[in-house]
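User: tokens in, sequence out, please.
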């Protein structure tokens, strides 16, 4: 990507030989080789020196998604300054295991985090529920948009993401009192102003300003130009542009002029300090394909049916796959949606989008293909198809909110008969975070939203309900519900359900008994 290559030049027939000789001496971009440039370097000797100006009370922006592209060297250096406390950290998530921002939580230096997703970070979840740390949950696309707004000199932005949910109403506590939920809320959520544009509801989100940004780059030159690698771009670029002080750890620090101007993701104007990245890269979830042959093979005739017969998850995925056409741009959530590609018609090929920055995601890698910079939204290892592209989180959520996906499939805890969806938290019990779900369902007029889930919860409670009792992810967003028992079309405007399919072996009476919503029955009900 960074090699200097000749540019194809159209040459008139007249005096061809002399023009060919001239063209051969022209570099493919016009850079003056030996012109003087500023001599000041931004390269520092150590990470410990580079973070010396971070002070108590600062807001730190930390790049990365899962463990991909996290500034581990800078975070580790920060733990060596235990006197710096009451920090606020802003990131997509707060690390996993012993890696990432969890280090600063364990050291007692972080007072609050503003994140999109906790995932399996049980230490942080427990600290939040016990009132020991504050967490402000922000939809993933909104988080990057708010960071981008400040970087662009804009005070706020309107977004459809989170409208009519606890994000708008301030219903997610930022911090509980010491003792946890039973002691009450210490800091409530922030209510948002709402406004309608062209019949759609939008909320006003303030820009986010950082004092210091910790950024991980693949390559940096001595004047601060940055290049990221595959999905390690994620939040790193927007955070580099935002903060008063941007500190970059780079895997490779190269001389000025080594990077092609066409390859630079972040211009040097945004970067203040650069250090060598010394901490090894980590992978949160390594998922493998048995072999390259398994990656490429088409499902055998009847294989889809066999899986669906033996596993309720595959039964749901097989039915959902019928909604996807050839050439569709599709976003698949974690869980059941990831099984859908196994059940697509052999003539249907799709472009899979992963919200951490891939369009054209491939299958799981073989052991020799594993790359810590190529992961999916579930933090798993993945691959790229021919024709794939990688980009940052801002680009990803622009295409999602803008309705450029044909279909998005995701799981849910509850769905109402009006298409309301709840899938991100159970107050006081389970806090996984919002992630990208609110963004994915924010433009249902342009992107068809399909929910795949079990019909009842583990305790037998219906998940298809008249009204959701759990905090909403989106209002009137779902167009199709596919469960292990039935398929419902949702009329989002009328707030009604139409039963179109019923699973083999399920009776209508049984379905009604396990559905806490009203529904009509189509004149012809298919089985699956």
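Assistant: Sequence out:
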């Amino acid at each position: 990507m960074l090699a200097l290559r000749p540019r194809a030049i159209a040459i008139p027939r007249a005096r061809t030989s002399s023009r060919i000789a001239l063209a051969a001496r022209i570099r493919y971009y016009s850079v003056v080789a030996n012109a003087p440039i500023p001599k000041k370097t931004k390269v520092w000797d150590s990470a410990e020196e580079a973070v010396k100006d971070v002070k108590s009370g600062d807001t730190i922006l930390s790049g990365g998604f899962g463990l991909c592209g996290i500034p581990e060297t800078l975070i580790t250096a920060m733990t060596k300054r235990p006197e710096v406390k009451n920090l606020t950290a802003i990131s997509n998530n707060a690390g996993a295991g012993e890696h990432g921002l969890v280090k600063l939580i364990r050291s007692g230096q972080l007072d609050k985090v503003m994140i999109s997703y906790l995932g399996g970070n049980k230490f942080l979840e427990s600290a939040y529920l016990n009132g020991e740390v504050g967490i402000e949950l922000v939809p993933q696309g909104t988080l990057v948009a708010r960071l981008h707004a400040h970087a662009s000199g804009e005070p706020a932005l309107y977004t459809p993401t989170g409208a009519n949910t606890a994000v708008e109403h301030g219903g997610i506590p930022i911090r509980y009192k010491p003792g946890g939920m039973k002691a009450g809320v210490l800091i409530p959520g922030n209510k948002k102003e709402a406004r309608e544009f062209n019949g759609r509801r939008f909320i006003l989100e303030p820009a986010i300003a950082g004092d210091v940004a910790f950024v991980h780059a693949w390559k940096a030159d001595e004047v601060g130009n940055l290049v990221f690698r595959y999905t390690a771009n994620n939040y790193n670029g927007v955070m580099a542009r935002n903060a008063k002080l941007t500190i970059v750890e780079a895997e490779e620090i190269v001389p000025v002029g080594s990077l092609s101007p066409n390859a630079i993701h972040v211009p040097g104007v945004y970067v203040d300090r650069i250090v060598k990245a010394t901490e090894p890269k980590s992978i949160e979830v390594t998922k493998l394909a048995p072999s390259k042959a398994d990656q490429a093979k088409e499902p055998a005739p009847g294989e889809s049916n066999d899986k669906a017969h033996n596993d309720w998850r595959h039964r749901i995925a097989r039915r959902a796959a019928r909604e996807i056409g050839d050439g569709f741009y599709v976003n698949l959530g974690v869980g059941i949606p990831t099984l859908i590609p196994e059940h697509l018609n052999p003539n249907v090929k799709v472009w899979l989008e992963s919200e951490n920055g891939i369009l054209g995601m491939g299958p799981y890698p073989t052991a020799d293909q594993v790359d810590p910079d190529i992961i999916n939204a579930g933090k798993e290892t993945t691959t790229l198809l021919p024709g794939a592209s990688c980009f940052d989180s801002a680009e990803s959520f622009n295409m999602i909110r803008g309705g450029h996906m044909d279909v998005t499939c995701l799981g849910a805890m509850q769905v109402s008969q009006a298409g309301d969806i709840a899938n991100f938290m159970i107050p006081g019990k389970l806090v996984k975070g919002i992630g990208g779900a609110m963004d994915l369902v924010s433009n249902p007029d342009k992107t068809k939203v399909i929910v795949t889930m079990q019909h009842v919860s583990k305790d037998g409670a219906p998940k298809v309900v008249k009204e959701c009792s759990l905090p909403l992810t989106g209002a009137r967003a779902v167009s199709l519900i596919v469960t292990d028992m039935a398929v419902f079309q949702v009329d989002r405007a009328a707030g009604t359900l139409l039963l179109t399919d019923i699973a083999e072996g399920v009776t209508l009476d049984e379905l009604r008994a396990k559905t806490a919503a009203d529904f009509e029955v189509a004149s012809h009900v298919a089985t699956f």
